[in-house]
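ok here's the first one, seq then struct tokens
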Amino acid sequence: IEFGRFAVDKKIKERDAEKRTEHANLAEAVEDNKRAILAHAVEDEMFELVKKLEGLIGKQYGVDGFENLPKEAKWKAVEKAKQTKLLQGHYNDLVNGRPSQLLERSGIAAKI
């Protein structure tokens, strides 16, 4: 009878291990999906900032426009460039699977 009980315990442990593996795989898939959604949103925001930056510099002041910008426009251009650089870092973290402050702050990190 002990042998039968051992076999049942072993089956239960194997089934539990399979469920934990399935659970971990699901959690990983959910996080990958959330990362992709956030990366897409970050990418859209970067493109918008670049458009605004190009509009601020390129259209009004030509290719070498930054040097010719009024002080306030220079400040705006520098701020947009900083925002773009920050978003590039967030984007790289998201698409490369590295820890992401943006993912953590968004409250949608995988919690399955």
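and now the second one, same deal
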Amino acid sequence: MSIKSILLWRILPGITLAVACFVGYLLQHEQPLGLLFSIIYPLSKGILPPAIIGHGKMKGTLEVPDDLSPQPRPRNEMCLTLPGSGDLMPQNGIGMCCRPTAYDGELVDRWT
């Protein structure tokens, strides 16, 4: 067997099957792109995502040290008006989406 036939008949079908299974897994959910993002972002940081290993199995986000104080808000910060309440929300967000634990439903829901 040549390298070309090994690639064509052994490796390529396996890759195709894996991609098809992953796309099928994504399409079973209401928001497949959101699920894709919540899987890829933690994996890019070397952390197993909760969408695969299960919620509540990650370590929580570290507590903020007591001596750390917030910086003042930027002067020309742009805000969006929230519908219903009319409150203002910064357009740049609060940075929770960049934490891998933000995708773990049990760790985000803190009742303490």
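notes on #2: The CA atoms of residues 25 and 32 lie 9 Å apart. The first strand starts at residue 79 and ends at 81.
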